[in-house]
Inverse folding.
């Protein structure tokens, strides 16, 4: 593999970044890639009709998720799935609810080539932004070339998405300072114990990054999820476990946005998901929780957001 094209991970300002031009690329280039990636993320000219940016569905003020059940693309039609939170995505790993892209770089081509989301192809998107003079300068600063290619567009956008991090929640702060409220601690104990949430929502990002059928699809969308393209019966209606960080700003929940509140999410798990679904993950079983225990669990989930950080704003460069 050509070393100058190899994908590598590096660290800047404490966040994982991607660089496609080799790990020896200077800090100036890295900052340039991040700035360019941000600009492209908010760029409606990337879409064929000039009306949809990544940020149109991944709303900065909603932790880069979408408040609409099905995200609406350039044709004004709602899609079948809800846009997930973009915080803490690994550079390499399963992307999308069904894991059909394998890295943040691969992921970028999907919305750009989907006529209902943004357009027809990465090449067409490149041609559209080539006409905007500022991008020539920005590509030169980021990559040392003014030639706008699909690979560089994907790298810049992926660098920006990888920089979106949330690890400073109220819970993290409270744990550090020993000031967690008793109800949050009780909720955490349930989460890790009797309610069995931690069996899938595990680790610092509260996800195993794996696929499970929790019965949501059986109850509402009947979306085949991961099984649709792996063809495996055991993966029917399975979806990737999402992070539980920043939930307070990201309703509605689940792959189809079918739950409007955390109360509804807890009702779902307390009821054992969809017990009639023959492919339900065996870990999902009815849970006995008192009303107070439900409240404690929701307090814990709420504490995984950073209530002190002002919501992200759509930058002025977005032209929205
Ligand atoms: C029309 C709305 C829409 C647009 C525009 C859009 N997305 Fe998405 N995005 C979604 C939806 C819906 C999903 C979930 C789809 C699925 O899983 O099948 C998603 C999933 C993702 C994921 C996967 C996250 C995860 O946890 O698996 C990433 C990353 C992402 N989008 C980034 C982008 C970027 C970058 C752009 C711009 C190039 C973009 N999106 C444009 C709606 C949109
Ligand atoms: C068997 C694995 C598994 C277990 C156990 C589990 N979850 Fe989930 N969780 C998932 C998956 C997979 C999804 C996405 C399902 C879908 O959209 O169809 C999900 C979605 C969620 C969501 C929605 C997040 C969003 O951004 O849309 C919340 C909130 C949640 N789970 C909380 C919990 C809580 C609380 C518990 C314990 C009571 C729990 N989960 C137990 C796997 C699991």
């Amino acid at each position: 593999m050509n070393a100058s094209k190899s994908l590598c991970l590096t660290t800047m300002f404490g966040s994982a970044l991607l660089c496609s031009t080799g790990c020896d690329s200077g800090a100036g280039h890295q900052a340039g890639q991040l700035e360019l990636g941000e600009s492209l993320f908010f760029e409606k000219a990337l879409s064929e009709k000039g009306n949809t940016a990544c940020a149109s569905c991944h709303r900065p003020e909603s932790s880069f998720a979408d408040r609409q059940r099905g995200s609406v693309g350039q044709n004004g039609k709602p899609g079948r799935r809800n846009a997930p939170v973009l915080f803490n995505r690994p550079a390499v790993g399963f992307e999308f609810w069904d894991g059909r892209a394998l890295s943040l770089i691969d992921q970028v081509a999907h919305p750009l080539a989907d006529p209902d989301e943004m357009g027809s192809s990465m090449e067409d998107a490149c041609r559209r932004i080539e006409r905007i003079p500022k991008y020539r300068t920005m590509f030169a600063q980021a990559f040392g070339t003014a030639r706008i290619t699909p690979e560089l567009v994907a790298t810049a956008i992926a660098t920006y998405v990888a920089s979106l991090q949330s690890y400073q929640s109220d819970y993290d702060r409270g744990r550090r300072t020993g000031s967690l409220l008793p109800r949050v601690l009780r909720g955490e104990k349930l989460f890790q114990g009797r309610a069995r949430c931690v069996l899938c929502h595990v680790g610092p990002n509260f996800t195993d990054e794996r696929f499970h059928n929790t019965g949501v699809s059986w109850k509402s969308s009947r979306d085949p999820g991961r099984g649709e393209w792996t063809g495996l019966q055991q993966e029917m209606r399975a979806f990737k476990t999402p992070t539980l960080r920043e939930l307070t700003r990201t309703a509605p929940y689940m792959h189809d946005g079918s739950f409007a509140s955390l109360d509804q999410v807890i009702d779902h798990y307390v009821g054992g998901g969809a017990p009639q679904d023959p492919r339900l993950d065996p870990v999902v079983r009815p849970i006995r929780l008192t009303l107070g225990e439900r409240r404690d669990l929701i307090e814990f989930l709420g504490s995984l957001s950073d209530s002190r950080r002002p919501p992200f704003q759509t930058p002025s460069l977005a032209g929205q």
Summary: The chain has twelve helices and six strands. Residues 52, 54, 56-58, 71, 73, 79, 81, 83-84, 86, 89, 95-98, 104, 107-108, 111-112, 117-118, 157, 161 surround heme C (ligand 1) (CB under 6 Å).
